[in-house]
Amino acid sequence: MAAAAASSSSSSATLCKHHGPPTASRRRLRVCVAISVTALLLAAVVAAAVLAVAAARPRPADATVTALRLASLSVSPGGSVNATLDAVLAIRNPSPVAAFAHDAGRAEVYYRGALAADADVPPGRVAPRGSEALAVRLTVLADRLAGRAPELYGDVVGAAGDVPLTVRTTVPGTVTVLGVFRRHAVVITACDVALSVRRPGAHSSSCRVLTKL
Questions:
Q1: Per-residue confidence (pLDDT) for residue 24, from 0 to 100
Q2: Which region ranges are annotated with the description Disordered (predicted)?
């Protein structure tokens, strides 16, 4: 049996060698070329299938609010309030083959359903399996909060001293698979944040992410 296996291995190894009559050598050469072409075609089909699946169903990017703090607060003699919030938006791209280049987006902060602050999100690019941290400064719209003053006062002086906020971000961009296939995508995030007034910079959050392709 060992001799037979050795003989078979030897025959396979010498299949493409030119020996014997010219007709037999040409036949072996044609067989070798056919096998090589078939193998290359199969590899190309598999690669094309992988690319097609990756392009059709790229793993979506996601975004979360990793930091939120009250940056400034001032009250004019007339009673108007000027305030800004500093937020850090982290965009993560879990795809191993697709990059995410995003255009300028939008960030909005809501207090009990009322728009309280907004700002533009700067453009950028996240490499495959990469992440990006974006600093965003939001201007508080004091006039929008006028009708919520009693509730805001109660949250600030309450036992916990936490202000419940919802941070919504919309980041449009383009997903590029292996530098070839491109698809438009929009990453939409809504984070419920409890901002601590008594401990500046302290907050807790939970986020929901939706990616539209």
A1: 64
A2: 1-23
